Amino acid sequence: MMHGVLHKYFHWGAIASLVTLIIWCVLWETVIAPLQPGGSWVVLKAAPLLIPLYGVIKRDVYTLQWSSMVILLYFTEGVVRGYSDTNATSALMAWGEAAIVCVYFVCAVLYLRPYKKAAKRMAKELLEKVNKVSIKK
């Protein structure tokens, strides 16, 4: 039911986009277009992305849920820096960051969709059972 071919692709898409985003942020802030020549401490922004990586790989539903919300901070940074950076290369990297975040978000949400539907169905069934017991009393 929940493990169709598309479901597997969404999982792999979430993993690939999260790993890509980590690498993208590190390269952006150290090699491609650092804020200061030689790199800066801004590269540490990639470190929080390592926290959900294991859970995403292991298909942890809770990790995918909260990480799909936290990742939107990186989207915000990408859009803000895409519009405001004076360095064209840095602005391009920022827009790339926003695009990668969109891929992760869509893959995570679509991966979680069957779980959400199943949870709603189970909650509805439980509520119906509780109502039947209440009516009999």
UniProtKB/TrEMBL annotation:
InterPro entries: DUF2069_membrane. Keywords: Membrane, Transmembrane, Transmembrane helix. The keyword Hydrolase does not apply. The keyword Methyltransferase does not apply. The chain crosses the membrane at residues 12-32, 38-57, 64-80, 92-112. This is DUF2069 domain-containing protein. The lineage of its organism: Bacteria, Pseudomonadati, Pseudomonadota, Betaproteobacteria, Burkholderiales.
